UniProtKB/TrEMBL annotation:
Any coiled-coil regions, as ranges: none
Protein family per UniProt: Belongs to the protein kinase superfamily.
Lineage: Eukaryota, Metazoa, Chordata, Craniata, Vertebrata
Alphabetical keyword list: ATP-binding, Kinase, Nucleotide-binding, Serine/threonine-protein kinase, Transferase
Protein name: Protein kinase domain-containing protein
Length: 339
């Protein structure tokens, strides 16, 4: 496998990524730790619950097209019949979505909406016979749709994404909120060159300290402490979980494939990474990582620190934006200052 990146198990293509659906939401929000932020959120959810109208979608909206779908529902473009306003509506099936989880996602999304790199949620939420719905601004697509499999995106675009996502994550983490589902499909884009991208999908977002259960299925964005969790154990949620996923996402958009399938030592790609990290030996750099400059490797080592306690905050990537990240980009000398 060494050197043959085209056969990487985690190549970014739709077929492969379909394996990496978000794990099901198996916790109840009642399990959260008592704290002030939780009280604020619950108060907001109560208020929204009482205010949420019951309507027939077709009476008030023209559904124009489907924008996407995920584990919990679908997103459509719709026009409000009276106001003429066009918006993205996220529909979640009542059959599979608890009302409190819908309200949690809606309220967290509203709270984070003020940040320029977080999707703007509109104060519009309602239920129909079959769905819970809330409204957001419309994007033109997600990061997954523009990645070139096995090739990735140019350094300049990767760094643009890194900078904007670092700011969004830093903002969330400063409010003790952990996204828990940082991945290509959850980063919405507003132009093809990623001058403007936004973090979205707060369906799994919870406060730090919330207890999470082991994963079902393989998730290449998950950190080792989650992949190796015993069936009966739980992990206390920490922002370092998002930092790991952020590191994986940056590798992914730089190369067009995942560095490994699962962060467990039975995965030979991950095992090579661990050997390199624990010995610090240049000879041990796995072939997939040799395409990066020393500066980029230094950054990845901080984001993908095996020990969660030593992972850097997301904003650390700002220190690396003026350096080339890919060796083949040294020729173009591309960095953010050029644009
Ligand atoms: N505001 C939007 N504008 C345009 N497209 C959107 C918007 N929101 C979501 N989408 C598209 O719909 C897809 C699914 O949306 P979303 O991630 O919110 O759903 P989900 O069911 O929670 O997904 P997941 O499987 O990640 O849990 C996104 O990956 C994106 O392609
Ligand atoms: Mg999603």
């Amino acid at each position: 496998m060494e050197g043959d990146i085209s056969r990487s198990p985690g190549a970014v293509d739709k077929t492969n990524l379909s394996k990496y659906k978000t794990p099901s939401q198996d916790q109840n929000i009642d399990e959260m730790d008592e704290n002030e932020n939780e009280e604020i959120l619950k108060g907001m959810m109560n208020l929204m619950s009482r205010r949420m109208p019951y309507i027939k979608l077709k009476d008030q909206y023209n559904v124009l097209k489907r924008l996407g779908s995920g584990t919990y529902g679908s997103v459509v473009l719709a026009e409000h019949k009276l106001q003429g306003k066009v918006m993205a509506l996220k529909l979640m099936k009542k059959k599979t979505t608890k009302k409190e989880n819908f309200l949690m996602e809606y309220c967290v999304s509203l709270c984070l909406s003020s940040h320029p790199n977080i999707i703007k949620t509109l104060p519009v939420a309602f239920e129909t016979d079959r769905y819970f719905l809330f409204a957001q601004e419309q994007a033109i697509g997600d990061l997954h749709s523009i990645i070139v499999p096995q090739d990735g995106l140019p350094d300049i675009i990767v760094k643009r994404c890194a900078m904007q996502l670092a700011e969004a994550l830093d903002f969330m983490h400063s409010k003790a909120l952990v996204h828990r589902d940082v991945k290509l499909d959850n980063i919405l884009i507003f132009d093809q060159d990623c001058h403007h991208i936004k973090l979205a999908d707060f369906g799994l977002t919870r406060l730090e300290g919330f207890h999470i259960s082991p994963l079902k299925g393989t998730v290449p964005y998950s950190p080792p402490e989650l992949c190796t969790l015993e069936e009966t154990d739980t992990l206390e949620l920490d922002s370092s979980l998002d930092i790991w996923a952020f590191g994986i996402l940056l590798f992914c958009i730089s190369t067009g494939y995942f560095p490994w399938e699962t962060a467990i030592c039975q995965d030979s790609d991950y095992e090579k990474f661990v050997v390199w990290q624990t010995t610090g030996n240049y000879q041990k750099i796995p072939s997939e990582w040799k395409q990066f400059t020393w500066r980029a490797l230094d950054m990845f080592q901080k984001l993908l620190a095996i020990n969660a306690m030593t992972r850097s905050p997301a904003i650390e990537v700002q220190k690396y934006l003026s350096d080339p990240w890919k060796i083949n980009s040294l020729k173009d000398n591309s960095n953010l200052q050029d644009n």
